[in-house]
């Protein structure tokens, strides 16, 4: 699927042997799980690792036994006619110069969020004397987490909702509604998926990756192409580095920076046709899917904009030029 020369040109720090293994079969027993490229200053990318290891047999058995007695956890969000519910902000953690992680308490400690993979939620806030501001976000916490839910919020200039969220302090409340269904995922639905993201468009991609790699039955291969302005803007970089280290034959990430530091060895500028042609699964491959999420400029260049939440619109841009069909692409 990937030639040795093309792979080296696209990502010079990748290991060639692992690139070949990724394109064909899993690495042989004893192969190194070395991270596939230098991740740089990972401390600025987010707070803590999410570990994608399966629960031990004893722990899983105990959890199933408890659930058999008490039933499945109650969801906080049930969709439909539920309407907005008020959640208490429990904690705020800075991530970088313009991004914070907000941790909200669910109404009950043993509740889960009720979010599906993939789905989003709506936040609502009303400034005095103005119409309510409503914005969608995708949580970055696991769907099985009890008692809390986490949002990763980047503050945008003149962004009324992101500004309000960044101004919030623990003890305040926010109106939230969900889940809003997006692309329904099931294990092994596609043999290989590609995720093309920009900025905070990474959050639904992370939701999908988290579901795939925490499920030992799901063998889907994933290629991520993530564009940002600077290295500091790369959100969830630690978590993706952990995935590359743990699943070197199934997960690869390519970062593109518009304003890279001098020592940057990855891709520079914008996400290009040449890069995508080199690293994505070919459109003629069976059972592949490409997901796109990011600012309007990214949609315009890569896939064309969607018309509405229920209308994906026509496929255009680089993906159409590369030969992908409308059915092979999903726009978050």
What report would you give on this structure?
- The chain is α/β, with parallel strands linked by helices and 332 residues long.
- The chain has two domains: 4-54 and 183-331, 3-Layer(aba) Sandwich (Rossmann fold); 83-174, Translation factors (Elongation Factor Tu (Ef-tu), domain 3, Beta Barrel).
- It is 23% helix and 24% strand.
- It is built from nine helices and twelve strands.
- A six-stranded antiparallel beta sheet has the order 4-3-6-1-2-5, covered by helices on one side. Strands 10-9-8-7-11-12 form a six-stranded parallel beta sheet, sandwiched between helices.
- It starts with a helix and ends with a strand.
Brief synopsis:
The protein has helices at residues 4-10, 16-23, 57-70, 160-167, 202-213, 237-246, 273-279, 296-302, 317-321, and strands at residues 85-96, 99-105, 119-125, 133-137, 148-154, 173-181, 192-198, 221-228, 251-257, 267-268, 288-293, 329-331.
Descriptors:
single chain, 332 residues, alpha/beta, Rossmann fold, Elongation Factor Tu (Ef-tu), domain 3, 2 domains, six-stranded parallel beta sheet, globular, disordered N terminus
């Amino acid at each position: 699927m990937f030639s040795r020369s093309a792979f080296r040109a696209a990502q010079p720090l990748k290991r060639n042997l692992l690139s070949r293994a990724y394109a064909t079969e899993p690495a042989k027993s004893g192969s190194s799980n070395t991270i596939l490229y230098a991740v740089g200053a990972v401390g600025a990318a987010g707070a803590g690792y999410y570990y994608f290891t399966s629960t031990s047999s004893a722990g899983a058995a105990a959890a199933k036994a408890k659930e058999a007695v008490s039933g499945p956890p109650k969801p906080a969000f049930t969709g439909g006619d539920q309407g907005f519910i008020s959640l208490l902000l429990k904690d705020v953690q800075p991530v970088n110069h313009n991004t914070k992680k907000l941790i909200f308490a669910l109404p009950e400690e043993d509740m889960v969020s009720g979010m599906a993979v993939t789905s989003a939620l709506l936040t609502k806030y009303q400034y005095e004397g103005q119409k309510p501001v409503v914005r969608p976000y995708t949580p970055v916490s696991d769907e099985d987490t009890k008692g809390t839910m986490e949002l990763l919020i980047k503050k945008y200039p003149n962004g009324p909702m992101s500004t309000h969220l960044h101004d919030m302090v623990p003890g305040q409340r926010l109106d939230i509604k969900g889940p809003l269904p997006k692309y329904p995922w099931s294990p092994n639905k596609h043999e290989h998926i590609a995720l093309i993201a920009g900025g905070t468009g990474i959050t639904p991609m992370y939701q999908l990756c988290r579901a795939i790699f925490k499920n030992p039955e799901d063998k889907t291969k994933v290629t991520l192409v993530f564009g940002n302005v600077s290295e500091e803007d790369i959100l969830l970089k630690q978590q993706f580095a952990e995935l590359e280290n743990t699943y070197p034959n199934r997960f690869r990430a390519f970062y593109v920076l518009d304003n890279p530091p001098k020592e940057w060895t990855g891709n520079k500028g914008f996400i290009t046709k040449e890069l995508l042609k080199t690293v994505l699964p070919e459109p003629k491959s069976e059972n592949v899917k490409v997901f796109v999420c990011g600012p309007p400029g990214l949609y315009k260049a890569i896939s064309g904009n969607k018309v509405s939440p229920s209308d994906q619109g026509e496929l255009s841009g680089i993906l159409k030029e590369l030969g992908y069909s409308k059915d092979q692409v999903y726009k978050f």
